Amino acid sequence: MKVDEKYPFIVTDISHYQGTINHKVHASETAATILKVVEASERIMRIDPRFEENYAGFDAVDHPMAVYTYGGSRHSGESQAQFTLDMLADRKIQAVKFDFEATNNEMSLSFVDIAYRFLEKMKEYGKSPWLYTNWNWYTLYFSGKKWPKEYPLWLAVYPRWPRWTLNPKLPVTVTEWALWQYSDKGPGKAWGCQSHGLDMNRFNGTMQELLSLYAVKPAADPPPEPPPDDDTMTLVQRVLNNDKRITENSNRLDGLENR
């Protein structure tokens, strides 16, 4: 069995580094695409310069999409999550990934807590949060913790060419993975990108499972208003009684003026 047969569904991840993209061509080659939405590793969080363009382009050809925030160690997990949610607004995006890696970041347990709080806030808002990192960072910072197993894992492990394997090398404590980033040397130009390189990923599952993870879930109905307590009912009754007395007094005055 070849890796193409075991994990046939390719997912790419892109950002402004891919330049201008022919979205129709790219969509014809991939099962789904993950767009970079936020860069949070710098002093000021910012939206990826190509996010709006890429979202509109893939939406126009009805291509499944997810997004990732390049996480930062300078900002709280909650603030990064909120900035990401604000950028998504009413867009049709369900799966949101937190990218945990070293460039521009201070690798520490504090950064791990930032990742956790980002993912938790996304879950509170009804999104499908994922964790992205590589073998080394997972082994150093996430092994032994229970909470990472609650989130689909997007793991970067690049096999040494040509020693291709059918499965990614997993950290000791990992038994399940959702997405395997196996190369950054994909056929960028052939797949409609301006760049030569392209990040390549294999999905661990069926196309139906991929679409179910990326599909936007309907918004939950707001919870019903709780019944008023006794104090509130007493206050409401007093207001109604007062309004009734004002109306009665006004009618009496009208009657006196008409005599």
Question: How would you describe this protein?
Answer:
This protein has 259 residues and is an alpha/beta fold. It has one domain (3-214): TIM Barrel (Alpha-Beta Barrel), CATH 3.20.20.80. Helix content is 36%, strand content 18%. It is built from eight helices and nine strands. It has helices at residues 3-6, 23-29, 51-60, 77-88, 109-124, 135-141, 207-214, 230-257; strands spanning 10-14, 32-39, 46-47, 65-70, 95-99, 128-134, 153-156, 179-183, 199-203. An eight-stranded mixed barrel has the order 1-2-4-5-6-7-8-9, surrounded by five helices. Helix 4 (77-88) crosses helix 5 (109-124). It is globular. The mean pLDDT is 88.
* Count of discrete domains: 1
Q: What order do the SSEs take from the amino end to the carboxyl end, as H and E? A: HEHEEHEHEHEHEEEHH
Helix content: 25-40%
Beta fraction of the residues? 15-25%
- The CATH class label is Alpha Beta
The class by helix and strand makeup works out as alpha/beta
Helix count equals: 8
In CATH, the homologous superfamily goes by the name Glycosidases
Mean pLDDT across residues: 88
**Total number of β-strand segments?**
9
CATH topology: TIM Barrel
Shape: globular
The major sheet is characterized as: 8 strands, mixed, barrel
What is the CATH architecture descriptor?
A: Alpha-Beta Barrel
End-to-end separation in angstroms reads 103 Å
The order of strands across the largest sheet is 1-2-4-5-6-7-8-9
Rg over CA atoms, rounded to whole Å, is 26 Å
Low-confidence stretches: none
